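so i finally got all the pieces together for this one. its two components total, 1071 residues if u count the protein bits. some of the lines might not be protein, just check the labels. i wanna see the whole assembly predicted at once instead of chain by chain like last time, that was a mess tbh
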Amino acid sequence: MLIFDQLKKNDPQLRIIAVLLLCGLGVLVAGLWWVQIVSSREYQAHLEMQSFRTVRIPAVRGKILDRNGIALAENRPTYNINLYLDELRKPFRAAGDREVARARAVLKQQAEEKQRQLNRKLNKEERKQFVLLLRDQNALRQRARYEVASNVVAEISQRLGQPLILNRTNFQKHYDQSLALPLPIATNLSPQQIAVFAEQCTEQVGVDLSVQSTRFYPYGTTAAHVLGYLQKDDSSAEGEEAYFSYRLPDYRGLVGVEAGYDKELRGKAGVKSVVVNNLGYRQTENIWEPAQPGQNLLLTIDYELQRKAEKALHIFGANTRGALVVMDVHTGDILALASSPTVNPNDPIQGISPEEHARRLDPVLRPEINRATQENYAPGSIFKTVTGLVCLEDGLDPNEIVNNPGYYQFSNKKSKHVGDLAAPGPYNFYKAIVKSSNTYFIEMGLRSGIEKIIRMAKRLHLGERTGLRTQQENPGKFPSLERVKSDWYDGHTASICIGQGEMSVTPLQMAVMISAYANGGTVLWPRLVDRIEPVDPASSAQPTVFEKGRVRDHLGAQRRSLEILREAMREDVLDGTGASAEVPGMPAAGKTGTAQVMDIHNRTTANTVWFASFAPYDNPRYAVIVMVEIEVNAGSGGRTCAPIAHDIYQALLERERGGTNHVERVAQAR
Amino acid sequence: MFDGFLSESQSRIDKLQLAAICALMLLGIAFVYSATMVTESASSAPWYNQIWIRQIFWYVVGLGAAIAVCLINYHTLARWALVLYWGNILLLALVLVVGTVRFGARRWFDLGFFSLQPSEFAKLAFILAQAHFLSRPEEEVRSPTIFWQSIGLMILPFLLIMKEPDLGSALVLLPTGLAIMFAAGTPKRYLFWLGGGVGILAALFLVDILFAPPGWWTIKLEDYQRQRLLVYFGASFAPKNASTAERIKAAEQERTKSYQVRQALISVGTGGLLGKGWHQGNQTALGFLPPGAAHNDFIFSVIAEEKGFVGSIVVLTLYGVILFTGMRIAGHARDRLGKLMAVGVVALLFSHVFINIGMNIRIVPVTGIPLPLLSYGGSSVLGSLIAMGMLQNVYIYRKAY
């Protein structure tokens, strides 16, 4: 090469120098190759770490709709005013400079004064104490920033006519930790405030309006337990980007369908990247990955019926402790699932008052639990239907007469006898159901034996969860075949026969049981969610539809036995304890019950009263279970629960008759 | 085809070298623009205050000065060598007294519109004087007296510049002086002993800085110089017996001191093969590369970030062209004086390029020296263009006309 010509020349010194130059350039090329090609990725990572901040943007949560499309949980825009600190950089710096200059001037004056006192020039050491330290400068600038920001806030506050205060600690914390994000100064603006802001504050530098999607339950407490509620939680869900510099507020369902279907409702959070400069101020931002909105959840609940059920359940006012379940006996659809007392799911989002907080912790009311699925109760006399069915299957002649002396005496004379509230006299199966005779069912139950009752209970899946994904189910209990092999006496069996003793159930389990009687012996999985569908109707994603009438088990009872049982239950409503449940046009069949709640000393401390029923008698469609917790002898299944069931049947009748009206109402509601 | 071009009779100047110089100046304008026009306040400044316009101004002035240098036969220049040398020594002494202090160093004469940095010109005067001094017959050069005198010629400006302090500018005098001495035919054993001596001294000096136990006598260095060395060798700032508070303070200092180097490395490294594109480098735009340094000593990291490895190689190639055409000029020079001048200029240019680019990729410690022809700065641009003029001068007057 021409440039290297001199290397050939006969001048050894120049040749050596040229070789050294070549080596030097070679070292630089190698170094550059190492830094720019080999280690490029590593430096890229450094760069990203120092100049990118990732922000998690929560997805819009899916709606929860009733079976007719009425939104029970939706999202509402709420408006906030944010302070954008990056836009305030100029005033920050100007104010900081002013402060520093002022402090310097003061120090200079002090130094001059000192000079005058000493009557000589200060030496180097002495001058040092009149120099503004970097740390003091930073403190002054920090204070100046706060003052600039708080002046802006005061201005906005005056315009909006709402006292807003910028907390110094919060401001500093935000400045130090989340400088790249806007700082909210006013949240949840009223429409007037939004208008005022839009009209008067737009030219104000550094503030802007932002919209945020907030969960809202338009009907407040209605279906609160089914819906559940949310809790602040901005952590990454599974399969999501796990590392973020910042996270915007997000919520997670804690109980109810909000929790059970949280993954589907929640959608997928998006990622926003903010480029920051060397001081951490926001420079630009863009969306790396948009958030994917959650899917809508269509429940089997009928809003109108649910509302009426809750109203009917409040027989002793809002603090009535009870539960109510309305279930379609063929499909397993839960049309209403009420629990009282109740809570407002809007509270955790909008803030819980101290009084409400105290109420939520009340050990007697316990408003947060879902009494229809979460609490276990002794079924009392409504369980006599199971005992009766077992006996009928075992060959009991329903017309066989048992003489009731007013109590049941075990063959072992030492055992205490069991009292019977039914009057003494002769009892057949029908009369025993209608009058709810303990003696009859203990006698017959003992005759058939506990094992057969256990087998029937097993087919009803008592002591097992019904599989709702609401995270508020307790299975209850029922003795197993193992359990009765030892340490089990007739007394135990007698208690089970009348729905007391070592067993407990949930109202929902009772609804499944009654449905099985009504539909001819099929034990269903209750169905609470009809479908999960994408928000965008044009989306190609297919909705997930849950199967109707999913069979869990069969009672294995003969048709005749079920017919006898249903007939007896019908008589209970016609002229028995459940008479007040009768609605013309919706003939019901049912069984009342009063269970005793015992303390550890075997004393009755409270009663659980029940009315378990289905209707219409000749062509059953609905199972209605009502359960209320009362003081000892403050009511009974017939007096307390049957009238509630009456209201429900009335509502069901209206619902069937007023089908067209209903659709119109729904249309209006939308 | 280059034979005709190179057949000396026609070509009066080295056009290839001139092309490389012009290319570097164009790059200089483009990237000084890119490095400074990042903030609103910078781009809204009046045009005569914009840094890239000023850079063009200095290029024009520098080219004028270079042409002026070319017009005078280097023999005539050399006659004034000692006058120039002592004049510059005087200026170096003067700047220590009346110079303005910036970043803790007294290196500049404040001339109002422009700060003059005399060390930039002292380097050139030194090359001229050293070349002139050693241009005597080779037999004389072999004598120890001449050897020691030429060392003295080198040490005087070295010490004065060290005193400012400006370690980088002082250090480049050493390879420059040694290269001239070597090319002049100073016996190798002298240079060997000199090189060895300097090496051992440097090693002792580093050991003293890095490992001296507290209380021992240490070489007096400005704090920032000591810290730069500590940063380069990754040593802790804290003395061995420091308290926790002192250590925390030292660690904090370490972080801020290593900041520039780290940011420069990130700039260069993220350039990758092709770079992010002109004016697209975010290290400068986001202010991570200190705005005061990006267009000065760290202009190379701006180029490397925006144009990548390819851009870096282009820059290196352009310098390579200047260096090797410089060596060719040395080889073609009419006499020893011309050869030594050319070697001196080449060595000076190379030292600047090596140290500056080297500090951008962390193979040499940070010493604030500019990248000739590219970095912003009046003294640097003027100095390097005059140096180029000296090279061309040797080329132009390679024949006795």
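The mean pLDDT of chain A is 88.
Chain A touches chain B at residues 2-6, 9, 11, 13-14, 16-18, 21, 24-25, 27-29, 31-37, 39-40, 42-44, 46-47, 50-51, 275-279, 283 (CB under 8 Å).
anyway lmk what u think
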